[in-house]
Amino acid sequence: MNLGLEGRVAIVTGASRGIGRAIAETLAGEGMRVALVARSKDLLEGVAESLGTGTLVHASDLREPDAPAAVVAAVVERFGALDVLVNNAGATVRGDFLELTDEQWTDGFALKFFGAMRMARAAWPHLVTSGGSIVNISGIGGRTGAAEFAIGGSVNAALLNLTKVLADRGIADGVRVNAVNPGSIATERLVKRMRAYAAEHGIDEAEAGRRMPKAMRVARFGEPSEIGRAVAFLASPAASYCQGAVLDVDGGQTRTL
Q: Which residues contact 87 (CB under 8 A, 6 or more apart)?
């Protein structure tokens, strides 16, 4: 399906692996010029090599307050425009609420929430010019709280609210803002959870991979490419009437409204 994205420019944060890499691959496959952002330059260069020409590697720690503006400036200088911002960067630790430290809470918000907020703020004038869009990658923990996911759930909920706020502003400014909530996606982070589950239950990883989806009441784990396709749709003219939408891509794991 031709989504009408060819020749347009996208920034994908957290693009070095997992969901972010899959998003970058999908957008590049639609003919977009993609700026890859993450902390690891080596990993980003590997992604860029696989994508071919039309990519920009920008290694940056988006926890630093000045980093997002520098990323946007570099992208506009290279490509002359910006059409799509995908805020994907950010991971948070799991654990017992009473044992989570202030430093862990601060770090959780620093990248995924404040990094996304600052990226949106820096990109906004360029997106107004291009009539572009933002897609925030949040997570189903922002809808449904879980005892072991206090930081992640709180950060995701904040990012979902920011999505609604920016969507409201975007109506007047001509910028579309939407979000994707991934469920349990087959990435390195999920492998770590599977290993912990296997150790806790005294089973091997293969058995853990069979049991965990059943415990979550889903048919299977998702693939990063499935998130990539959802992002491409929301970023494209095909989703021109989606504003402030939150798309759960989770195999039905979210059962609340």
A: 13, 115, 116, 119, 120, 134, 135, 136, 137, 159
- Is the same domain home to 117 and 21? yes
Phi then psi for residue 252, to 5 deg, are: 90, 10
> With 90 as the cut, is the pLDDT of residue 53 above it?
no
Q: Residues near 5 by Cβ (< 8 Å), separated by ≥ 6?
A: 27, 30, 31, 32, 84, 232, 235, 236
Q: How many helices (H) and strands (E) does the chain have?
A: 9, 7
* Residue 49, domain extent: 9-185+224-242
Question: Same domain for 85 and 148?
Answer: yes
Q: Does residue 4 belong to any structural domain of this protein? A: no
Per-residue pLDDT tens digits for 158-171: 999 999 999 999 99
pLDDT digits (tens, 9 = 90+) for 82-108: 999 999 999 899 999 999 999 999 999
Confidence band, pLDDT 50/70/90 cuts, at residue 193? confident
Residue 198 in 3-state DSSP? helix
C-alpha–C-alpha distance, residues 185 and 244, integer Å: 23
